[in-house]
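Example (one chain per record):
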Amino acid sequence: MPKSILDLIGNTPLIGSRVLNPNANVKLLFKLEGHNPGGSVKDRAALNMLRSGLERGDFDKNSQLIEATSGNTGIALAMIAGIYGLDIELVMPENATKERVQTMRAFGAKVTLTPSDVGIEGARDYAEAKVINEGFKMVDQFANDDNWQAHYKTTGPEIWNDTDGEITHFVSAMGTTGTIMGTSTYLKERNNAIQIVGVQPTDESSIPGIRKWPKAYLPKIFDANKVDATMEVSQNEATEMAKRLAKEEGIFAGMSSGGAVTAAIRLARSIEKGTIVCIICDRGDRYLSSDIFK
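Predicted structure:
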């Protein structure tokens, strides 16, 4: 029996596509990260960053933590910080969906909204200024090795074991890049022939959870050598696939998952055979106030 909600993080289901898979010689598998208690893949990284930081003494219950987020990491940090009795301020652009803001506040976090026209980069600048000028401690998902190591310790091994080592391709959206970095590191150690495919938005697209970072804001944990190929998807493709996932596969997820599945289907069409695992990073209920499902 789990001792706390934290014991329910990880070991998420891996299921096969019933409808969307375009190639009968390919297994297209979805890793359902919305089954984590905080509703997204970010529970894994948040737990490892806070637990490891406390163990090392990087911060304690008297510290004021701060983090910039586009949503899912913030929800995960709010949930876990509350359990650990930590004080955290989460900073996000003001155009974030109200479900995300309300969920973070429900878990007890302070939420600060920054102007939408400066995006997540502006939120990151705000958080860094509080660290420099007011003594806050940043969790720093973009540079914290505990982020990607969470996936090295959990996501990668789960996928390897659940596919009996038959995985040939791994597809993941790239935001902070922790998921793809940690999972790639583990899978490549087991079989270097496994292809790692990262998903980015086209230049004109805005897809929450998927970014093409300006060089100055590129996550420090990102190592391009751990990604074999990148695919670009449009905002429209990501939105339409999120709708199809719900309607045709019964998988209720957000735009970043729609983007990842778009790329995975494109990949499935391009190979003769194989086993593709695609990350479904969160649940769709935190996007209901947006235009995605209208």
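Caption: The longest helix spans residues 119-134.
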